[in-house]
Amino acid sequence: MSAERAAAAADTARGAALPPPGFDADWAHPVLGRMWRGQEHRQRLDRRHPWLLDTAVVLAVVLISLPDLLSEASHGPFGEVVHRNEVPDGLLYLFTAGLIVPLWWRRRVPGVTFFVIASVSLVQWSFGVWQQAGVSTLVALYSLALHGSLRALGWAAAVTVAEATVAVCVLLDIGNPLRGLFFLLGTATAAMAVGLTLRIRRMYLTALEDRAERLEVERDQRVRLTAAAERARVAREMHDIVGHNLSVMVTVADGAATLAANRNERSTEALRVLGDTGRQAMSELRRMLGVLREEQDDERLLGPQPGIQDLDALLARVRAAGVAVTYRTMGDLDGLGDGVQLTVYRVVQESLTNTLKHAGTGTSADVTLAAEGGEVRIRVTDTGIPPGAPPRAKPTTEEDDPGHGLVGIRQRAAMYGGTVTIGPRDTGHGWLVDVVLDVPPGDPLP
Fold first, then answer.
1. CB 66 within 8 A of CB 75
2. Which of 82, 140, 310, 416 sits at 20 to 30 Å (Cα–Cα) from 72?
3. Is 50 exceeded by the pLDDT of residue 446?
4. 90: which residues sit within 8 A by CB, 6+ positions away?
5. How many CB atoms neighbour CB 282 within 10 A?
6. Is the pLDDT of residue 341 over 60?
7. Helix or strand (DSSP H, E) at 306
8. DSSP string, 64-90
9. pLDDT digits (tens, 9 = 90+) for 123-171
């Protein structure tokens, strides 16, 4: 990890804010960086407690309006407009509340907030009252430009122009209407400009963040494609290396079987089984690794998955290895789907493999397949280690099976809602694998 990444990771661990995309230089500046980090902190605080900022804005406007409520006259930017004794105190307080209270909803419903405040301002000016609380109109315009609809902002701008014109030309005596109109429209324009500027900045930062996220997704996709290409390369190499060695072994076994047959030796059948097993291993190796080869469109290495009809060949190889296998079937097994047949084949294969591994030659095995009533039952038993034979390792369980064969049996059975019983037989000798698959009649199985 580079020093820059280590520093970024340390900042993240300390909870420090990371610079927005494209603002690394400003973030590193001693003054601008502090302003950025302070803003990030305020934004996080506002997201967690939005009512704090709303309360602060309302309290600020209340403080601005206190001199008007406590003094004898109402003063505006153009001097004294109306004396306090000309308007009842209750009406002044009502105007102040009407200008300030709506600011609580300035971010949730900015359009409604502005038009309510504008209406109160117009009514207040019709009484000749000008209060400092009128700054709430600028706050509402700013909030509408930042959070509200642009169409509503256009209507708000038109209302502001009309209302300011009526106020300075008709309702209020300010001496110089042109100066008053310039002041009112100038401050309103500034409030909207600030809100629109921050809105555009937020949109820009959002676009940058979205672009950064898309670049991260593209980077992850490139990493996955590179990993897939590497896996395909390794798979091709495994296929070539292992396939070559298996081909040599099969060739040598076939040659040795032919030579032993000419000499009438007892090892002939064992060598033939060795050659057939090697060829089957090569076929399954191509089937498993061939899907990752880039040449698979031109070179069809895949073949059909084994099914129940392939059990005869499997049992013949097991018998040739020295295990007496009895095979019985009941019901219409050929009508099962390919997925169920593959599951049956793999369960029988794994069960007999465990028999060969742990009971050895000279034992007997019984394989029973039954399809009836929407269920398929697979039962494989063996008689255990023959008397007088040297002790062998105990049959594997899910906890100590390095190849996860018995776990694979349970997973395959779970695909069809089946149940699995694996363990010693009740007689005390031998091993039992009993699998029941739930296969409803007429189910179009994969």
1. no
2. 140
3. no
4. none
5. 19
6. yes
7. none
8. HHHHHHHSSEEEETTEEEEEGGGS-HH
9. 888 777 777 777 888 888 988 898 888 898 889 899 888 888 887 787 7
> If we measure between CA atoms, which residue out of 361, 359, 363, 366 comes closest to residue 326?
366
Rounded CA-CA distance 49/444 in Å is 56
93 band by pLDDT with thresholds 50, 70 and 90: confident
pLDDT of residue 5: 44
Residue type, 181: L
Query: For residues 371 and 375, what is the distance between their CA atoms, to the nearest angstrom?
Result: 6
Per-residue tokens: 301: 């290495």
**More confident position, 92 or 113:** 113
- The Cα-based distances of 100 to 103, 219, 253, 334 in angstroms read 6, 51, 97, 83
| DSSP classification of residue 424 | E
pTM above 0.70, yes or no: no
Residue 162's identity, in one-letter code, is A
Token representation of residue 70: 């406590």
DSSP 193-258: HHHHHHHHHHHHHHHHHHHHHHHHHHHHHHHHHHHHHHHHHHHHHHHHHHHHHHHHHHHHHHHHHH
Assigned token pair, 89? 């105190």
Q: What share of the chain has pLDDT > 90, as a percent?
A: 8
Q: What is the mean pLDDT of residues 268-285?
A: 77
What does the alpha-carbon distance between residue 26 and residue 215 come to, in Å, rounded to a whole number? 22
pLDDT band at 186 (very low <50, low <70, confident <90, very high): confident
Q: How far apart are CA 120 and CA 110, in angstroms?
A: 16
Element (H, E) at 354: helix 338-358
Distances from the Cα of 294 to the Cαs of 221, 241, 245, in angstroms?
19, 17, 22
